[in-house]
Amino acid sequence: MDALAHSVASECDVNVIIPLYGQPSLFSEAVASVLRQVDPPPFRITVVLDGCVHRQSLASATAWARAHPGRIVVLAQANGGVAAARNAGIRFALKAWPACRALFFLDADNRIGPHVLRRAFDALTVAPPEVGWVYPDFDLFGMGGAWSTAGSHHLLQHLTENVCDAAVLVRREMVEAGVAFDDSLKAGYEDWDFFLRAAGAGFRGAHLPAAGFVYRRRPESMLRDARRSGGALFSALQARHPGLYAPRRILELEAQEAPRFGIITPAGGTACLDPGVPSEPDAAAGLFDQVAQAQAAPGRLHAPAMLVFAATGAVEALRGAGLLRGALAHAERLLEAAPLCTLTLYPSIDGLVGLEPDIRPDVAAAQLVVVRRDALVAAARQGPAPALLARRGLAASIPGPVPVPGGALDLAEQAVSALTDALARLPRERIWRPDGRVPRDRAARRVARSALRAWPLLPIRCDPARRDIAFVTPVFGLGGVERVLVCLAAALRERGWRTHLVVTGAERVDAPPRGAFDSLVMLPGFDSERHGGGRNAYAGAATSLLGEDTEEADALAGLLAPMHAVLTTHSFAGHALAGRLRRMGVRTACGLHLAERGRFGEPIGNPHSALAYEHAYDLLVTHSRQLAAWCAGAGVPQEKILALSNAPGYEADPVRVAAARVARQAGLGGRALRALFLGRLDRQKAPDRLPAIIAATQGMVEWRIVGRAVLDEPPVLPLPVEPPVSEPAALDALYAWADVLVMPSRFEGVPLTVLEAQRMGCIPVATDVGGVSEAVENGRDGVLVPDGSDWEVAQGMAQVLLGLARDDGVRWRLAQGAMQRGGTRRWETEAARFSVALNVSEVLRFT
User: Fold this and answer.
1) Which positions fall inside the Glycosyltransferase 2-like domain (predicted)?
2) Is the peptide bond before 456 cis (omega within 30 degrees of 0)?
């Protein structure tokens, strides 16, 4: 070899790695196709003889190496599979040619055209550093055909199917970053795994047009064997890449690569994943052009899968009520059975927020119309009547002003006309290389369904600076438990969390106070809270009857899967899904407020049922020390128990507090004792004990009863019942009016009303049950009456009230003690402890 030849032979920009096993004759065609390259970058060929049983393989490989010394190198090793063979080639090439800039993988039975290496090397050279590999189209031989892989690299597509063959040119920096084939993979999908490893390391691919790669296709092959075992192989692939298949990662990719919604208003249109975040619209015509182009090439181009036509102010009204994300997620679910879904907004006449099925949707009156993209295209091509005839509907009731009914249908009809024009403008293309990839607008749905069994995912854009937590509860009526959720959520928001209220058992709820929750998710038409005892009971307590494999469970899992954490309170549906969410990486907590027993002493209520699901929870959060001890005694590990101290349910105005304290002393003597019952008119709060107490204190005590029944039928009471109040000023006015807060409850946690009343100098007189003694020190800042029969409790409370009515000195001493104790607790402190515990629970789970 002369000096020039030796110099050329010593250079190597590209190393072509060819594993050889079982293809001794076809291998020669592969090598020959590499040697016939036109104007290639300096390259070398590394043949990895992978323990092939055919003697001809060794003979053929050595013959080629002797014919091209220095250009072709043969490595021999025991059979380890194609992944191990490629890794051996990579290690050898990086050491043998330190200046090698890229690696090309070629299977022994395939071929490349004469310009592949030059085109691939030039494309990789000018590509940005995050492009780790370039990949070609497929032109088939043996069994003829062609496949297109055109378009930008779409990771969501790549999570659903392998869009790249191993015949790719890989940047040296990518393998130096630790990206390698998995030697343990011998049954298939080793190429797919390799590309997902690269994506996990931050690299992306780039399509190489007109490459000239030719792929041998046969009815029986390793690929065919892998597809026969596709389900098991895909599950194993997902398990090796949990970060890529995590719900929040899927949503991140959806926001970047395939926004789910196209929202069209009279002001214009915008494509987005998260409709809860306001965005500036562009001209709607551009969105319709995008829809037309994606319809012609769905595997290469993206357009939103759903188009939302909204009358003026409708999106803002739903967003203001917190319902927008959840409503559109449910509309998406309904669109699987019909091409169109209406969303009609109504003003709330009772202050409640609701999202319910609309069994007779009127598309002309709806303020929002959600249409599947394919149905809109069909309407543009065939006329709207056949394409949009079938429909589903949702009705939302929201406080405050509601946009004028109608308006959305007009926008949809205009869109059909605009889309007809956009389709007509498309150039006619002769497609000889078809695209069989999953459409880009369906990729997120497919990967979530196959990998997570959860869809629709709540359409929320992930914020790396904030964590998301869902509070799952069957009802929301602003009682004591709900007020605890509101306070904890508001305090967590102050610490940077995004908070979401998920109501699983009611379609209408009290409007949450502003500042507590970023969104409100409801389940219209669901029956997810079904539960029962008998054969399904655990230690006598009811358990969930929500099947794990039902459509309801999958839909609810999709709404909760994007969360960092979920706090379940009294929700059987939350119990049923806690294990699945935990396996997805969501940190799960169960909120416990009080341990109950039924009329016959049977265990009922959340703590008893929660014990059946303790394995699925990272934390059991109790709101009293008494309940924490109960959990420990029931077998819950101490490390999983977090006792939070309740605090008042709202921030009091210092001026009102000071005025109440001054008036408290001035009001001693000269009038009857004022007693207040404030709470739900349900069995727990024991309002049925009030008539006997009121009768026994008649003439000495002035009474007010404030509340409403939520869970049980209200008892007959001797006084008119005032409606419940939730505004701080109204609550402070009640506490300031009353001398005594009367709580004849049968069971309790640590009531917020006690802490709020004490702050205003109102004396709590309560049954000594549950965690009440943690908020009241008997004889110092309140009075505790021993629990017993209804008659015993009523008589005991009546005696206490009569004593306070007669003795101003005792009353003033107790009021002073209450004022000293009230307001010493803060939700900010408890929220900080909860945040820390959630992070600690993650460490405990994975160590």
Assistant:
1) 16-129
2) yes
For the CA atoms of 253, 257, 262, 266, what is the dihedral angle to 10 degrees?
Answer: 110
Q: Which residue has the tokens 């970047």?
A: 256
SS (H, E, C) 270-290: EEECCCCCCCCCECHHHHHHH
Contacts 24+ apart (CB under 8 A), 788-793: 790/686, 790/688, 790/689, 790/692, 791/692, 793/686, 793/689, 793/744, 793/767
- What is the DSSP annotation of 117-170? HHHHHHHHHHS-TTEEEEEE-EEEEETTEEE---SS--HHHHHHS----S--EE
Q: Which residues contact 49 (CB under 8 A, 6 or more apart)?
A: 20, 21, 57, 58, 61, 74, 75, 76, 77
CB 77 within 8 A of CB 48: yes
Radius of gyration over every alpha carbon of the chain, rounded to an integer in angstroms: 34
Least confident interval from 105-109, 426-430, 551-555, 616-620: 426-430
**Closest by Cα among 473, 549, 544 to 504:** 473
Render pLDDT for 355-374 as a digit per residue (tens, 0 to 9): 999 998 999 999 999 999 99
DSSP class per residue in 523-573: -TT--TT-EE-GGG-BTTB-EE---TTSHHHHHHHHHHTT-SEEEEES-HH
- Cβ neighbours for 769, distance < 8 A, ≥ 6 positions apart: 745, 746, 747, 748, 787
Counting Cβ atoms within 10 Å, is residue 734 exposed (0-12), middle (13-18) or buried (19+)? buried
- Please determine whether the domains at 467-643 and 654-825 fall in the same fold group of CATH: yes
Q: CA–CA separation, 275 vs 273, rounded Å?
A: 6
Task: State the first-to-last Cα distance of the chain, in angstroms, to the nearest integer.
Answer: 61
Q: Which tokens hold the place of 485?
A: 């959720």
Compute the mean pLDDT over every residue in the chain, rounded to the nearest whole number: 90
**Amino acid 839: pLDDT:** 85
How far is residue 92 CA from its own chain's centroid?
A: 45
Of 198, 83, 77, 184, nearest in space to 135 by CA: 198
Give Cβ neighbours of residue 533 (< 8 Å, ≥ 6 apart): 540, 541, 542, 543
The region of weakest confidence among 623-632, 660-669, 690-699, 766-775 is 660-669
Residue position matching structure tokens 């889309």: 419
pLDDT tens profile 211-224: 999 888 756 545 55
- Summarize the chain as % helix, strand, coil (round to 5): 40, 20, 40
The Cα–Cα gap between 110 and 211 comes to 14
Q: Does residue 200 sit in helix, strand or coil?
A: helix
Encoded tokens for 490? 């508001």
Separation between Cα atoms, residue 734 and residue 753, nearest integer Å: 11
Q: By the 8 A CB rule, do 712 and 767 touch?
A: no
Pairwise CA distance, residues 163 & 160, whole Å: 9
> Which residues does residue 590 pair with via DSSP β-bridges, in sequence order?
568, 620
On whether the CB atoms of residues 23 and 48 are closer than 8 A, the answer is: no
Which tokens belong to 473? 């509860």
- Whole-Å CA distances, 584 to 255, 278, 368, 566: 20, 29, 33, 12
Q: In whole angstroms, how far apart are CA 106 and each of 95, 382, 745? A: 20, 47, 77
CATH number of this structure's domain 467-643: 3.40.50.20
As a CATH number, domain 654-825 is 3.40.50.2000
Residue 550 tokens, joined: 């039902």
For the chain, which residues make up each domain, given as ranges? 3-240, 247-431, 467-643, 654-825
| CATH number for the domain formed by residue range(s) 3-240 | 3.90.550.10
pLDDT the model gives residue 9? 45
What whole-number distance in Å separates Cα of residue 42 and Cα of residue 44? 7
Mean pLDDT of 787-815: 94
**What is the tens place of the pLDDT at every residue in 266-303?**
999 999 999 999 988 888 889 999 999 999 999 999 99
pLDDT at 115: 96
